[in-house]
Amino acid sequence: MKIAQLLVLGWISLLSLGANAQWQWIDKDNKKVFSDKAPPPEVPEKNILRRPGAPSSRPNFSPAPAAAPEADAAAAAAAPPVAASGAKPTGVDKELEEKTRKAEEAEKAKKAAEAQKLAQAKAENCTRARQAKATFDSGIRVARVNAQGEREIMDDKARATEQERLQSVISADCK
């Protein structure tokens, strides 16, 4: 049983080694970026916070070996052609950018549709208010149905208040 526990513990400790192979830098928008790929060349060296295989927090007392110029040339030749190629990794998810752009466009379209619907309702209210105002201005008798379902003819006071209400609707919706 102890061997199984030791194997599980060893396996768990090995899984955490992959987390050390992470780059961390601050992009041009001052946001921390975490990636398993190197930052783009335009990121200054001072903005790179962590590299994979970086020395641990323990001090290293062994002196660094002096590199020969031939070794530098060989290392440069063996380096991957990431910087030489035209494709530059940006560290930003293109799919996420596309989704946010589409969501913003959908929101704009929704707002435009609501504004158009509101404008159409105002135009319809304006037309109805103008027709009703013309009816009241003509002087003919106007009847309404009351709460009991009975028809009653409007007196002069009720006509005047209705004309004022219609005029306020016209001034608000007819622009």
Structural notes for this entry:
This protein is mostly helical. Among the domains are: 16-53, no CATH class; 95-173, no CATH class. It is 50% helix and 10% strand. It has four helices and five strands. A three-stranded antiparallel β-sheet has the order 2-1-3, with no helix packed on it. A two-stranded antiparallel sheet has the order 4-5. Helix 3 (94-138) runs antiparallel to helix 4. The longest helix has 45 residues, at 94-138. The N and C termini lie far apart (85 Å). Mean pLDDT is 79; it is low at 56-62, 71-77 and 79-86.
Q: How many DSSP E strands? A: 5
Helicity range: 40-55%
The secondary structure category is mainly alpha
**Which strand-content bin applies to the residues?**
5-15%
What's the helix and strand layout?
Elements: H1 2-15, E1 23-26, E2 32-35, E3 48-50, H2 69-78, H3 94-138, E4 143-145, E5 151-153, H4 156-173
Antiparallel strand pairs: 1-2, 1-3, 4-5
Write a concise keyword list for the protein shown above.
two-stranded antiparallel sheet; single chain; 175 residues
Summary, kept brief:
With 175 residues, the chain is mainly alpha-helical. It is built from 4 helices and 5 strands; from the N terminus they run αβββααββα.
